[in-house]
Amino acid sequence: MDSKASRPDSQLWSADDERAILDSIEQWVEKEVRPIARKFDQADEYPHELVEQMKELGLFGATIGQQYGGLGLPASTYAKIVIKVASAWMAPSGIFNSHLIMASAIERFGTEAQKASFLPRMASGEFRGGIGLTEPNAGTDLQAIRTVAKRDGDSYLVNGAKTWITNSGNGHGILLLVKTDPQAQPRHKGMSLLIAEKGEGFIVANKMKKLGYKAIDSCELVFDNYRVSADRLVGGVEGLGFKQVAGGLELGRINVAARGCGIALGALELSVRYAQERSTFGKPICEHQAIQLKLAEMATQVEAAKLLIEQAARKYDAGERCDMEAAMAKYFGSEAGVFCASEAMRIFGGYSYSTEYEIERYYRDAMLMCIGEGTNEVLRTIIAKQLIARHPV
User: Fold this and answer.
1) Is residue 126 flagged as an active site residue?
2) Which pLDDT score, from 0 to 100, does residue 2 have?
């Protein structure tokens, strides 16, 4: 699929279909996700049973084309699903998000053989993946990666390391960004993507301990003479990896925006309830103007984030350029998550520091959204550059 072509499947879903899907997701979230979030978060335990339920719901194929067994949902519907899931517990949305970024890159840029081999298994959840971009010395500056893949007959030998790789512990493989020509100038012309399944030389070195975003595996990986068949080079042509990754990040940023918005919404919902239950000076704290001002600002940021996400998602679905819109949505949505979680901590007062209350988890999870899929500082420069480019004098 051309990265600029509109998504044909997105035209197959009516407003009634969307409501039915979202109702189903909401019931699942309230019945299965919310009740276990605190337990699994505190234990930092991978939710295997929840993953099986995600398979049945089709979440691992949410945005994969119907011809490959996926739901083919438009990004606008997908974002609403993510907001709902993240409003109860942010971590599970990461399990299918990284997977779907990998699937999106294969569907948009892969060969027909690659699509036929991987996308049906990814849609069913039989093969669960992620994206291997970040390295100990290369995060936002992806062109600085040092993992090298050298051609050796009909395969590549890969050596290097990756870090903060979601789904790498319990998943089956990743989309691996490598240097196939370390001497290329400009640097991005020497970068390629490989579909890397677990095997000899693919070493999960360490599960990282984190402040938040727990119960999901973020691992350090080492590649020690790891051999990948040459037919796993995405698109079959070297040097296109950076461009292929950049295209997939649009969907990733819409997802992160939705996760941030979900955190903001969840924090708001908890705060609205608590403010009516908690009393001081003889009346519920929701009647104190200081609390009302906080609730009003939180609610406004949630609704504004939803609108920015909707704008970016609709452009993505139409095949229009949306790097600026996705950056705006991710920037604002993630900052809304941090703001609302922080304000909720103040509303809950001393109880916010107790693990008996859910709000401390929202607070711990929120900041990651400002860092992942491009830091908000970098995204603001992207927004500014696009603004100038689209309005030349």
Assistant:
1) no
2) 44
